[in-house]
Amino acid sequence: MTTFQPETVPGQPPPPDSVPPRDSTVHAPTSVARLNDTIRGFVDRWGSVWVEGEITSWNLRGGNIFGRMKDLTTDATISFRVWSSTAQRLPKDFATGDHVVACVKADYFPRSGDFSFAVSAMRHVGLGDQLERLEQLRTKLRAEGLFDASRKKRLPFLPGLIGLITGENSDAEKDVHRNAELRWPQVRIRTKHAAVQGDRCVPETIAALKALDADPEVAVIVIARGGGDPQTLLGFSDERLLRAVAAASTPVVSAIGHENDHPLLDDVADLRASTPTDAAKRVVPDVSEQRALVAQLRARLSSRLSQRVSHDIAQLEQLRSRPVLRTPDALLTGRAQETWMLVNRGRDILDRRVAADDRRTRELRASLRALSPLATLSRGYAIAHLRDGVIVRDAAQAPAGADVLVTVAQGSFAARSEGPVQESGAAATQGGDN
């Protein structure tokens, strides 16, 4: 909004009635009339200014029009008056929600202390300008990813509780309730009423959205309106509302009911429905269709189960008709005779092998006994060992005084050598004969 500049002449002091009554004290205060006259004198020196905004109130009383205008991006508002002489020159199609530019001049009423603006001219802002702004916002939000399909949440198959945001006693509310209850009689809907156009549309819709989103029972939220011209639907393209919908944790369905130039809410919402009736059909399943589907699935299951049982019975009969299952004793009887023969054959082979090994063991034992030194010792021979365990094979190995260990057939004993013995020739000969 353009800032007013007081009309002053350089080098000249302001008129006396525009000077604040600075001479007032607690003991000598100024009067209300003087204060109001001072304000009136100051405001009268303001010039006219063109201002752009949205009409949020438009009331005709006695030929004069009293209304309010709202800033397009903030909640700032002003009051304005259109006197009957000016209203006769304006177009007759102005209404609440219109986007306009107006030439206004500040007006202050000393008797009541009211501040307002008098409108001298007003015209609609071109739809092309509005669409250009919407396209700029659309491009901005798309770049941020608010339109991406990947961020959209899936709707539940059968929501336990539906949150509905719509105008009070509106056709949209009746359509959603009627069609939802026709499709699923046990459906539950929690409705939050909000203005669907004008300056209260965006804040009330956001408040209702936050309340329903915070309710853990609400499974899906529907924002519904029964259509309208692009001017009246501007609230559903407001960036504040769009970001609130994008931030909601509950799936949101847009059911504004306007096909052409649809609001940006349709792109940000998780699902777009063409009308409130379509929203009810998309959110709630049809009980008759679900019953038909269940009946169809039951029939298919019964058919598949019957086919499977019949197939398994046929396979079982085929298996039972085989000889091995028809007379299982025949197989056992034949195998029993074969098993008895193999057992006897194995027993005979084992007996023969044991007998042969026994004979071989006796032979080896006899050979070992014949080769054993004990057999020689049992015939009266002895073995002499020196202290270091060396067997004495030559008499010279045991000189006189050498300790000798003598082993005989039944034990060993110690002896001391007296040295080699010289045998006589006769004894040697006799020993050689023995």
UniProtKB/TrEMBL annotation:
Residue span of region Disordered: 1-26
Protein name: Exodeoxyribonuclease 7 large subunit
GO MF terms, alphabetically ordered: exodeoxyribonuclease VII activity; nucleic acid binding
One matching Pfam family: tRNA_anti_2
Top EC group: hydrolase
A GO term from the CC aspect: exodeoxyribonuclease VII complex
Low complexity bias (residue ranges): 1-10
Gene name linked to the record: xseA
Domain OB-fold nucleic acid binding, first and last residues per copy: 31-123
CDD domains: ExoVII_LU_OBF
Subunit-level organization: Heterooligomer composed of large and small subunits.
Subcellular locations according to the entry: Cytoplasm
Domain of life: Bacteria
Organism: Microbacterium lushaniae
